[in-house]
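Sorry to interrupt, but I need a hand with the structure work. It will help me judge whether the discrete encoding reads sensibly. Write everything out right here, beneath this request:
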Amino acid sequence: MSLRRTVAALAASAALCAVAAPAASADESPSAQAPAEKSLPSALYGKGDPRYDGVWRQSLALLAQDTAGVKPAGKAVEWLAGQQCEDGAFASYRPDPTEPCAAETLADVNATAVAVQALAALGGHEARVEKAVEWLKLVQNEDGGWSFNPGGPSDANSVSLVIGALVAAGEDPAKVLSTEDESPYDSLLDFHLGCDAKADERGAFAYQPDDKGRLAANDDATAAAVLAALGEDLVVEPDGDGAAPTAPSCDKDGEPTVAEAAGGGVAYLTKVLEENGGHLKSVMPGAEEQPDYGNTADTVLALAAAGERDAARDTLTWLEKNAPKWDAFESSPAALGQLVLATHAVGGDPTDFGGTDLVELLNATGPAPASVSADADAGAEDASDGKDGGDGVSTGAVVAVAVALVVVLALSAVVVARNRKRSK
């Protein structure tokens, strides 16, 4: 029996004994109730406001759970599937999915793309996946790409996510052509900084050109674009046959191939990681310089997909040591999902992420999973190394509950003895 199950059994026994003991006297005031949490769907992962990321975080949580051998709660999967509109699109969040999507419902390309990846991985949702992919094709821009919301200019991140969705759905992105016969890969190359870029930005990808058409290196966009350029979705298998792509040569005329652009992106990311001590930095305008844990996790995926597994493992090692400082580390299903996927990409154990069980933390952000694989459960117990139960329960907690049980039993015995004396 695992320590978690032992604690549960002891706690249940203590509770039963407490019921048998006499009630508190009338002059004892009950403890103040904690304020009620904001009402959210019970099937939703995370406790924050879901208006802008409900589908996103749900999809990442489900995808990561599936990757880690966890069968998610049925209602969690049903909630995600029920967020889809009749035309196949997903909004960022629909508070009442029983109401049909209206004209003012803002479709979210990124949410649709990541939902496709999650539902495709879970299986049994082929019709919904196909419908979502058809919608993505309908809103493809003439340059072959997509924007966050349909109708806007393409951006590297949205294009990359849709490429991942197409791959997950069994489509060949090179054959998904716009009305101008441009593919998603053609659009991706539009964001690549080639030989005419500054030396320290060469090989990177931009998020979007500025109002004068100039490109600036963006670490987040580069990590996403490398993954997409290699034809990968968010689940990078650790035993894949990915080989390191070659960066484009500036001595050669002509535009780089998408594989060469990926190689340039890998070279750029590797250089940035070395300069920063193993991580990416925040690129938010005006933000204090600090590590960007999410983008660093995305970089692990890109490096692993490119066959740079030693560099990917080194970056994951930095995350294992430093990610606990991330304010989203223990409570964000999207952040935990990213870390689980990054760990999976290098063949690591997400139940022992620097001593922390990521799977347990992720599971705790939403409804209890339907089942956990034996490997995941064993990994959680083995990760304890005698310090805790591997599933987040310390040996000290077991002892504390056992002591509490003994105390309650002793008190119950005293009460019974007193009652017997009174009855004589």
Remarks:
- The longest strand covers residues 70-71.
- The beta strands are 70-71, 371-372.
- Residues 43-382 form a domain with the Glycosyltransferase fold (CATH 1.50.10.20).
- The chain has a mean pLDDT of 83.
